[in-house]
């Protein structure tokens, strides 16, 4: 990192995060701290699992980390079964496996549903589809036997 001091670089990452996700600027907001990306902010400093995923993303740049943040939104960095963007929207730390959204009585998506562009879901094959196939086969067979006679 040439020309940018580590403290200033981390401040850039912090500012990009709070701006991108519209994090509340109140001092007690959970995501309004360095703990969003850092496991430890005192020497020796260390990144948490979310911070490590961010740093290892190909689009990561300490001066503009927004694209890197967007790229890791669908990941579950801390392995707690909630994707990063879901944790951020629910004010929980995406790099801390013991901090996760409270599950309500409604179902919660834990991973994104990805459908490749231009494809349609395959139809479900049911008993009715099998029954119709057998009936069609029987009709064709019946007409083939009648035609021979």
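^ structure tokens above, recovered residues below v
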């Amino acid at each position: 990192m040439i020309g940018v001091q580590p403290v200033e670089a981390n401040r850039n990452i912090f500012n990009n995060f709070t701006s991108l996700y519209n994090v509340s600027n109140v001092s007690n907001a959970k995501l309004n701290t360095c703990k969003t990306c850092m496991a430890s902010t005192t020497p020796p400093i260390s990144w948490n699992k979310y911070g490590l995923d961010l740093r290892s993303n190909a689009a990561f740049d300490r001066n503009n980390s927004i694209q890197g943040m967007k790229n890791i939104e669908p990941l579950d960095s801390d392995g707690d079964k909630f994707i990063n963007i879901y944790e951020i929207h629910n004010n929980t730390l995406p790099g801390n496996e013991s901090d996760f959204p409270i599950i309500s009585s409604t179902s919660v998506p834990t991973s994104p549903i990805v459908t490749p562009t231009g494809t349609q879901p395959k139809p479900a094959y049911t008993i009715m589809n099998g029954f119709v196939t057998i009936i069609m086969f029987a009709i064709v067979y019946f007409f083939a036997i009648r035609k021979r006679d």
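The radius of gyration is 26 Å.
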